[in-house]
Each structure stands twice: as C-alpha cells, then as structure tokens.
Amino acid sequence: MYKNKLVSLALLATCYVGTTSPAIAEPSIQEQLQHINENIALLNAKKQELELRAQVASKQVEIDRITNVDTGNIDRTRHPVVQAIEGADGKMVATLAFGSGTQQNVRQGDKIPGGWQVNKIAVESVYITRGNDKVRLAYGHEPPPPMPSQTSVPPLNPIGR
Question: Comparing C-alpha atoms, which of 104, 100, 78, 81 is closest to residue 146?
C-alpha cells in the first residue's frame, strides 16, 4: 500500500511538472542593448554605403566631363531611361524603358533601337555609343514620351484656292 501511494505520488508529480509551461521571459536589458547596438551598426553600414555611392556618382560626373561623355541635354524623346541595374562581378544587366512602352534587358555590347550600342553598364548608369557619340543614360521611373507622328496633315482651308 505504501508502494502504491509512492508510485501515485511520483506519477502526480510527473504530470504536474509536465503540464507547467515556462513563462515567456522578456529579453534582459543586456540583450535589448545588444540588439540596439546591432541595429546601429547595420544603419551605420547602410549610411556609409549611401555616402560611398554618392562619392562614386560625383566622381563619375567628373570622369564624364573629362572624357567628353554627354551627360547633360539627354534627348528623352530618343533615349531610353534606366529602370534597374543588377548583377555582380562585371556581369551587369540593365532594364531600359523606351517611349514606345517597351522594356529591354541589355548587357554590354547589346544593340538598342536607334543604332545605339550598350558600351558599359556600371552600378549607377548605362553608357551607350553610336559612332563617335557617347551618352550616359539617366535613371528614371517613367519612359520617355513617344515620338510624335511624322505624317503631315494638309491644312483644312488651303490658301489661294
């Protein structure tokens, strides 16, 4: 009988211990500070990346000026805009948007409408050439407007008739 009570008591204790759920502990102050410091380090790295990209873009404008690449006065009615640039290790792909509403993924050396050839794809821009003409394509969210129709319309009231 004593043995049965002892077994019952042991079973009861096992059931009680098995049914208790541990309380969800909040992170300690040290863990919270560690998480905050990790976030600060990540934000600082992102800030440094943005500053570096700005410096690269500034240097690229200077290089373009020295090498006479036309970065201003881009004719948006003829040239596409860059919507995205992706890739790594020199294997870059750019998505260009044209005024006709079409998009084209291009790599260095590809031909695009108008007789242009993709000369270089960098992290911040795409360069195209046609003969001696060099143009740096701008980033943009909207493609250039479509070209106006070249068909001539006769006047409604011709003079001298």
Answer: 100
